[in-house]
Amino acid sequence: MTPHHKNLFSLNKLSYIKGGKPNVDCILCAIVAKHKDIVNLLVAEGMDTAVCVNKYPYNSGHILIFPKRHITDYRDLSSGERREMDGLLAKSLDVLESLYSPAGYNAGFNMGDSAGASIQHLHVHVIPRYRNELGFIDIVGGAKIIVEDPSITMKKLREAFRGFSMK
Ligand SMILES: [Zn+2]
Predict the structure, then answer these.
(1) 31 CA from centroid of ligand 1 (Å)
(2) Is residue 167 a part of any domain in this protein?
(3) Beta strand 63-67 with 42-45: parallel, antiparallel or unpaired?
(4) In this structure, what CATH number is given to the domain that contains residue 88?
(5) 4 is catalytic
(6) Ligand 1 centroid to residue 68 C-alpha, Å
(7) Domain with 19 in it
(8) Which of the two residues, 60 and 20, has the higher pLDDT score?
């Protein structure tokens, strides 16, 4: 982990604490169950898997793709769940491309405490990367990364995913 990433991560932790940790066992299970105390962050849903925006995005368009079933290890995914997550990942990349035209993506699992997984429920992060994001000149110039408000991202993504079916 580079110092830059470590810094981003602790910012994320900080806002998590500031926002008050919701009183549920698992945030992703609560989102799937549409728990009344939880902001519904879902943007797309299949039979067994779902996509939501990250409430504390590292970058504009940061989403999570996850199985609805509470599992913590990639190896516990059923072949059906794996296939569906794969389809949702491909569709998500299309949607993000149409909305944000990023220069690239980081996509990956954080598994286990040491990997910085603050949510135990298995999920894939998909983080669009932009050409003009925080470079040396920006740092010298004192610029900050401008990350879109996740509630706006959510509206855009829901619209873009509308009518999409995993079947
Ligand atoms: Zn869960």
Answers:
(1) 9
(2) no
(3) unpaired
(4) 3.30.428.10
(5) no
(6) 7
(7) 3-161
(8) 60
